[in-house]
Amino acid sequence: MKTLKKMSVGLVLAGSLALSGSTAFAADLIPCTVAGSSHTYGTPFLADRTGIFVDDGDDASQQVGNFGDIFPDGIKFHDRTYTSIFLNINGNLSFGQKREAYTPEAIPGLTFPTIAPYFADVDIRPRFFSNEPGDILICKDVANKRLMFTWYEVGYYARKTNKRNSFQVVLTNTTDECKPDNIYSTVDVQFRYKKLEWTTGDARSSKGKNGLGGNPATAGIDAGDTVNAIPLPGSGTGEVLNLIHKSNIGQNGVFEYRIPTGALSICDPAISPGCEQSCIVHDDCKDPATNTCDDNASCITLPGSHSCECQPGFEGDGETCTDVDECADADLNTCSDKNDCVNTVGGFNCGCDDGFEGDGTVCTDIDECADGLLNSCDEYATCSNTEGSYTCECQDGFTGDGETCTDIDECADSADNNCAADAACVNTDGGLIANGEPIGAS
To answer: Euclidean distance between the first and final Cα of the chain, in Å?
Structure first.
């Protein structure tokens, strides 16, 4: 039995061969003898309906119930329990409602639960016209606790029989095999492929020609929530013909999956030791209807529920998360003490304060005096570097704030010069000339 933790996990294929849709190495279909029926695989599709029309052999559905002797508690599929199944002529079983579509739809992507051995445009109307082979059969095998649905030698739309397909899906009640206390009620799904010769109906919307091309058959199990699904290899491509040569259990043309459901929606090996499990999980986190987490929280899937945890940079109970101001608490940021911390939504940025340089976590002082372009001192001022800044001081013989320095006219005030009364005083930039000798000139 193939073990999967989620339906989105890819299939492990065994015995895969790159062959065409011939029947070499394909699987046999399981026969089923039904009292009063001469058919090999059970009771014909629509056999219990009266007034059957010819067109019932194209796109029809039949609701199949009364299988309580096989599934006493119903079939627990995904997050609901069903006491009937819709057998849809176009290669699939659906739960809750019939599927009338004949052009294959992608798996995952279906909008209600479906088991699709070969979702394509089947047409069995030739059986009504000329009693040709090609039918769909139902078997309730109580002794083996299984329901079987067989598409035998079926052709494609419109009434084409030059190519035929034969495949089968088997649903088996394996509850007792998995858990004695029935916390999980399980159904095993088995697909069997004997012959695959066509992929596509010739309807205009399917875009097929002579049974090929266009929109090829899809195959797999889909929970119907557009997320959780197991597509079979080649589903939706021409390679779907090769299902008869592939497998996930080492037997060509056979695929098996166990679907435990019930009180818990996620398999827990600790609860069921020794029981191989694969789950169609209702993931609260992926369903907007059940995910209550804030946009800034991480949603964590739990058995039957979920939890919410605010992402780094936010605080709250997970259902409501608010931004944390890391800049307001030095313990919450890695910025240097010479930094310019800027809070952002969910984080922070570090930038060095003016007068410092670095990456914000380490900031070093800039020597503005070493580069005249970094300071505003006057040419007649002295620049002195300080931590994060600098100072400007006018040189002797000048006055001002250091950024602007003007010459002092020492000759204009005898207190500013020591010239003799009969000496000639001549002012210069930053000094004077007395008796022909410069004094204090810069």
So the answer is: 98
Confidence tier at 8 by pLDDT (50, 70, 90): very low
- What torsion do the CA atoms of 28, 122, 213, 238 make, to the nearest 10 degrees? -30
Of 289, 298, 343, nearest in space to 316 by CA: 298
The answer to whether the peptide bond before residue 104 is cis (omega within 30 degrees of 0) is no
> What are the beta bridge partners of residue 389?
386
Q: Are strands 160-173 and 389-394 parallel, antiparallel or unpaired?
A: unpaired
Name the residue type at position 96.
Answer: G
Two tokens, residue 321: 């998360």
Measured between alpha carbons, how far is 404 from 153 in angstroms, rounded to an integer?
102
* Tokens read off for 342: 């800027």
Cα Rg for the chain, rounded, in angstroms? 42
Distance of CA 320 to the CA centre of its chain: 23
**If you count them, how many residues does the chain have?**
442
Q: How many Cβ atoms from other residues are within 10 Å of residue 131's Cβ?
A: 8
Write the DSSP string, 235-303: TTSGGGGGGGG--SSSSTTEEEEEEEEES-SS--TTTSTT---B-----GGG-TTT----TTEEEEEET
Other C-beta atoms lying within 10 Å of the C-beta of residue 304: 13
What tokens were used for 151?
A: 């598409």
Nearest to 114 by CA among 142, 100, 94: 94
408 against 57, higher pLDDT: 408
Residue 367 predicted with pLDDT over 70: yes
Residue in 370, 351, 376 with CA at minimum distance from that of residue 362: 351
Query: Are residues 320 and 293 in contact, defined by beta-carbon separation less than 8 angstroms?
Result: no
Q: Distance (Å, rounded) from C-alpha 54 to C-alpha 402?
A: 105
pLDDT number for residue 420: 77
Instruction: Using alpha carbons only, give the angle 385, 390, 396 rounded to the nearest 5 degrees.
Output: 85
CA distance 284 to 78: 12
Quote the longest CA-to-CA distance of the chain.
Answer: 150
Residue 87's identity, in one-letter code, is L
DSSP code of residue 413: -
Task: Give 6's pLDDT tier (boundaries 50, 70, 90).
Answer: very low
Which amino acid appears at position 99 of this protein?
Answer: R
Structure tokens at 123: 């047409």
Instruction: Read off the pTM.
Output: 0.58
Q: Bridge-partner residues for 105, per DSSP?
A: none
Residue 334 is predicted with a pLDDT of 80
Q: Which amino acid is at 32?
A: C
